[in-house]
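Example 9 (inverse folding). The structure is encoded as follows.
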């Protein structure tokens, strides 16, 4: 019996390129979902090598005004553009990426009888916790969605709290994943006890708290080396802080890397350092690091703890001294670090993107039925 072909409309209101975890996720996810036809709405410029996961990619033309007094007229214009596209495409289902953001509002306002599944990514929930207007947008999208997907129970709980428990029965946890078959583990054994070669990758902003790793290296007993991979608003501040602390020879900054290049480099390090201090929806980079055999030292946040369990080494979020103690212990204890390499690989195997795609398709079938 042939499976039902689903016509899915989705999108993210950003340039259509693998520039963030969310963009990389959707590219993997819709490529991994069987028996679907996906139309994706994005923005120029389009990375031609990236759009292959979608059957059709349409670029939005409404100029963006994500903040300030022009926001409401902007959402109105975007809604009109999206409404015309929905009329033309006639999807079976809409997957609204990000709760409450402009494109999701446009989707839910023009969906009519087409069911909507809202998918939370983290920045949407963080924005709603910081702004009453963003919270109103999140509630609006949640109220008009048939189901709300979160990648962890911790994030689902945050959404449930923000919406006053009105949509608890719509919340579904579907863990994210990565294409595990593409990950390669170094055939070189971990280096013996001593200073570690550490890596940190992600946006350089306040919530990601890369400063915690920088300041921790000034407090360690051993001269560990840290490579920071990524871009963001705090890059210049972080570089200045490195000079202030006399760590110029121990911390280097590399620009954002495409995933192929990042994955090629990961096996060359001894451990991955994860420093987010506030909300973290999932942390795909944690699984990427583990899939390459890296022990993960992580800030002890509920969602991250849910993903890693005992397969990582926690420290107090935002506390450089706590992180320094953990790094020195890992540097001294070669056998413990080697054991964490095994548990890291075992944990990563739980998060294959094919499982994510299968679960989201099953939910989509239930909703459309």
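The amino acid assigned to each position is listed next.
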């Amino acid at each position: 019996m042939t499976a039902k072909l689903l016509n899915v409309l989705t999108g993210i209101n950003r340039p259509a390129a693998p520039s963030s975890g969310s963009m990389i996720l959707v590219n993997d996810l819709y490529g991994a979902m069987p028996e679907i036809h996906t139309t994706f709405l994005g923005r120029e410029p389009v990375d031609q090598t990236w759009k292959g996961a979608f059957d059709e990619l349409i670029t939005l033309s409404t100029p963006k005004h994500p903040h300030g007094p022009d926001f409401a007229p902007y959402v109105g214009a975007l809604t009109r553009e999206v409404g015309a596209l929905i009329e033309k495409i006639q999807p079976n289902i809409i997957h609204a990426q990000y709760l409450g953001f402009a494109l999701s509002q446009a989707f839910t306002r023009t969906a009519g009888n087409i069911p909507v599944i809202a998918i939370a990514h983290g920045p949407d929930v963080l924005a709603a916790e910081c702004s009453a207007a963003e919270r109103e947008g999140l509630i609006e999208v949640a109220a008009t969605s048939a189901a709300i997907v979160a990648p962890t129970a911790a994030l689902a709980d945050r959404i449930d709290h923000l919406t006053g428990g009105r949509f608890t029965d719509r919340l579904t946890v579907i863990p994210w994943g990565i294409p595990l078959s593409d990950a390669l583990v170094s055939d070189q054994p971990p280096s013996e006890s001593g200073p570690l070669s550490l890596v940190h990758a992600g946006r350089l902003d306040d919530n990601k708290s890369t400063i915690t790793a920088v300041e921790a290296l000034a407090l360690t007993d051993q001269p560990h080396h840290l490579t920071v991979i990524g871009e963001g608003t705090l890059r210049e501040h972080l570089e200045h802080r490195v000079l202030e602390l006399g760590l110029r020879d121990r911390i280097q900054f590399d620009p954002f890397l495409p995933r192929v290049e990042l994955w090629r480099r990961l096996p060359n390090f001894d451990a991955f350092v994860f420093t987010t201090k506030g909300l973290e929806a999932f942390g795909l980079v944690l699984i990427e690091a583990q899939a390459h055999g890296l022990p993960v030292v992580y800030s002890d946040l509920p969602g991250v703890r849910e993903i890693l369990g005992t397969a990582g080494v926690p420290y107090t979020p935002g506390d450089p001294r706590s992180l320094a103690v953990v790094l020195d212990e890992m540097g001294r204890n070669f056998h413990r670090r080697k054991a964490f390499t095994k548990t890291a690989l075992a944990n990563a195997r739980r998060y294959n993107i094919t499982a994510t795609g299968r679960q989201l398709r099953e939910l989509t079938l239930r909703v459309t039925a």
